[in-house]
Amino acid sequence: MTEAQPILSISNLQTRFATRYGLVTAVDGVSLDVMPGECVGVVGESGSGKSVTFASVMGLIKPPGWIDGGSIKFEGQELVGMSERSYRSLRGKYIAMTMQDALTALNPALTVGFQIMEVLLAHDSQISGSARNRIREARARVIEMMMLVRIPSPETRLNDYPHQFSGGMRQRMMIAIALACRPKLLIADEPTTALDVTIQAQVLELITDIRQTLGMSVILITHDLGVVAEYCDRVAVMYAGQVIESGPTKSVIGQPSHPYTQGLLRSIPNLANLDKRIRPIEGQVPELIDLTPGCRFIGRCDVREVACTQRVEMRNIGQGRTVRCIQPKGNVQ
Amino acid sequence: MNFGKLIERLAQLIPVLLGVMVIVFFMMALTPGDPVDIMIGEQPISAEQEANLRHDMGLDLPPVERFIKFLGNAVTGNFGLSFFHRRPVIDVIAERLPATIELSLVSIILAILTSIPLGVLAAVKKNTIFDRVSTVGSLFGVSLPGFWFGILLLMLFAVHLRILPVSGRIGYAYEVDAVTHLLLIDSLIAGRLDTFANALSHLFLPALTLGLPMAAILMRVTRTSMLEVMSQDYIIFAEAKGISRTRILIRHALKNALIPTVTVAALETGSLLGGNMIVETVFGWPGLGRLVVESIFVHNYPLVQAAVLFYAVTYVFLNFFADILYTVLNPRVKL
Lengths: 333, 335
Prior knowledge:
Number of helices of chain A: 11
Number of strands of chain A: 12
Number of strands of chain B: 0
Largest sheet of chain A: 8 strands, mixed
Oligomer: heterodimer
Radius of gyration of chain B: 24 Å
Largest sheet of chain B: none
Mean pLDDT of chain A: 87
Distance between the termini of chain B: 8 Å
Helix content of chain B: over 70%
Radius of gyration of chain A: 21 Å
Mean pLDDT of chain B: 88
CATH architecture of the largest domain in chain B: Orthogonal Bundle
Helix content of chain A: 25-40%
CATH class of the largest domain in chain B: Mainly Alpha
Structural class of chain B: mainly alpha
Low-confidence stretches of chain B: none
Strand content of chain B: under 5%
Number of domains of chain B: 2
Order of helices and strands of chain B: HHHHHHHHHHHHH
Structural class of chain A: alpha/beta
Shape of chain A: globular
CATH superfamily of the largest domain in chain B: MetI-like
Strand order of the largest sheet of chain A: 6-7-8-3-9-10-12-11
Distance between the termini of chain A: 40 Å
């Protein structure tokens, strides 16, 4: 029996930026596998490297940044060092991305219909024939996509501009663009951050629905553990450019192993126990310039040891879980 | 676009134009010097004759009355007689206008066609040699005064190299039926390529001198706004869609980047109208600009008033068109 191959396999990825203050290693040795049909949550606070990791996957790292090492394989094909031309035929077609704020991600000067149609015309080989024919076919597909993301009366609304839509609709339009070519992998970068809570749920339900219909994999980048708990099969927690813990969502959230994950979970307000004070994690995320080789969390950790000043490798703790900590059980409460 | 709104916007231009007329009239009335004195010059003339002349020219009335008369006549297109030419002002202007329109149009088209691609290229090739050279080049373009740069061009191409004519609009040997009164177009209509080439050779240096500052500024504006737009999320998102770089530049970036360029182009076209006076004088171009300069020297009030009014109206309408163009480029803006 053959094991299912991961659709996306990131191993030991290093992404660096040259800034005037020095070299910033924004992504430092990140490894992550995503299986077909799976939803993987990537959590971490701002600046933890989650967006840069997936910008690297999309091939969107531009000078002064570059991928300094490691490998990104999509369906077994190496993406690091791939020509821009081949990358372009991949982006939008097989790997698609949505951004945090649809208001800034949609072009204000172009109609939404045009913005969806453009992806279809660029990638879909089924749309063929004369120019007029292609446009007619693409238009039909645009309407179909808009119906899929539940935009009312798509026939007329496709001629509207982004500012004429509500926030939730814009987010759904962006998802429609991302999904237009039925990609195998969707990278959703904080899809709900810019939305209010009721719309958040709608958008996430929508992504889940489409994921099941199309059988695609989803990487959900977020800083909301609640979203991860509800929608993701597996989760990877990032801190200061590294994945510090990963595993099946239930088990990671139920029994966090890394002191940082534990701290994160402690700092979520609990509706059942409102009297309990939230305990924030003390201290600050380290600057990503001139890092020491040891554990990134050392300055904020309650259970640090001398050994933590040495490089800490990812270790397997069973049940598909890995953690970057020398005493992985930590002080599980 | 809403037609009613368009009419409304046009109606809003009326008070602006009225204001312009007030300024034009009183500015000229307040300038020192008396046109009657200038006309008489050294000729021996009796006081009675002088008073008659003054009456003929309508200069014996109080300024306010003269203004009301001017206003009433202006609305009907009657700007009186040119003191100097002794012909209706409107006829004199109409005679000179095509030359100015031709020169301005060619300058503007030249400026826009070169500056926008260069600006885009400079933004795409940011911080390369090309970008640096074009930055310095545009600085020169803005800083060189037209009267000086024009004379330099004349000395090089017309005096030393002798490949382009020194002045005028067309050689004496050439003549063409006037259809549009624009020589380039008329010569093409008549199928006279030699005339076209001659007209072009006369036009080239003045158009270059006139269009250079505008091209330089538009290039800078386009570069800056392209850079600004290129760092927007929607450009990254467009890249993530896997569409080609050229398409991203033209469809996604340029359309947004042109918004400030259009504003500046409208304003610059206004200063180009002013630049006309200098350039036409330097190159002996028989257009409205030179006519105005000549008329100012001889206190030819009616002509200067009409010409300045013409410039102002043109300027106001240019901005009006820029506003309309905005709504095309930027769907968030409504008239």
